Fold each of these.
Amino acid sequence: MARTEYWNDPKAPKPNTLIPASNLLVVRDDGALLLQRRRDTGQWALPGGVQDIGESPAQCAVRECEEETGIIAEVTGLLGVYSPPGHVVAYSDGEIRQAYEVTYIGRPVGGEPTVNEEADGVRWVLPEDLDSLDIHVSMRIQIGDFLRGEYPRVD
């Protein structure tokens, strides 16, 4: 399913849903961050996705990380809750979502970077190499908060 992301765009369509999602910012001992390149947008992002009934936000973040990247991780902290009204995601099926993401910090405990149906690229990126990647502003804000030590954040 195709998606279009809007950031503080007055031309963005009006959201019709608000669905809880979780991300996991996984950090290796050398400071490298785990990123995936989304097949639907081509942009690099933190692993994450929609929370299922019966799981906690943290469980969702760990599950989505493994599904999308092949990396098994554990949660070590909370980065923040990100739900700015100006971040709108429109899907090709007519759903228009205001983003609502609980983002956790984690560390890898197993697995290997693996591409899949959602991600056509998975890799560890050192902070000094982030500017060379196409990363949506919403993800840049979350990564920036972590790198500056400005968390937990609640929008």
Amino acid sequence: MSLVKYEILNKVAEVHSFTKAASILGLTQSAVSHAVSSLEKEFGFNLIHRNRTGVTLTEDGMKMLYEMRKVLLAEEHLQQTASNIIGVSQGTVRIGLISTISTHWMPNIIHIMDSQFPGIRIELREGDYYEIEQWLLQGEVDCGFLNRTSSKKFEFMPLKRDPLLCIVSSHSPLYDRTEIDLFEIEDTPIIMPSYKGTNDVMTTFEKYGVFPNIRFELYDEKAIVSMVEHNLGISILPEMAISMLPDTVKALPLVQESYRILGLSTKQKLSPASQKFVEILKQWLENEEH
């Protein structure tokens, strides 16, 4: 059946290996290779490149995989709808999320999902805004946590307004301040968060016409805090990213209104299982706010 071949090619594309794909799917390597070769024969062109570093899809292969994922998603939706009709919630929800969401929200939400909908399987994939956007566009996840300033190609459901705060060490002359004005720190060395795609902090500086003195750019928020702790500069980070700071580091509000709006983005109509996840997510956030 073609659906099985589509699933095999999809897994090969994810793990870049026939051997790994075969192991995950519970098949022999020869069965995986045969399925891919059968698709190539059926379509009349190559779908993959085989090389020493692994397996990658050709440009034509990527185009076909995108369409195959639509078929696989439609089949998943069909099965979930049938399960819902007989009163059983089943299926898989594939979620792209940033590290702060996986740390602060998902453990509690997964516990609730496991309790209320044990037939629904949650798959998590962590990345930055840019990576999550790509996964959504390519159909690799059903929904993803992004900020409002991300791509306009998705439906966006706002969930939380997360303030941006300035973090300083006890050795900084700013430590005893109650708030920080962006214009006053224009010349102060900044440890800038480095994300692919939309950068909430840089967007804030640009919004107010401030040109920061960037000393370092780092991806890992813990590393940024460590740099600040050693008085190598100050930084600005979302509140959710700095819930636990060393005793010698303080988070201060900004004079200018500065925040990111986190939400859930989708590209396609949500499956029944994904709708259950969204319901639980909203309920949990409402309870957290009260």
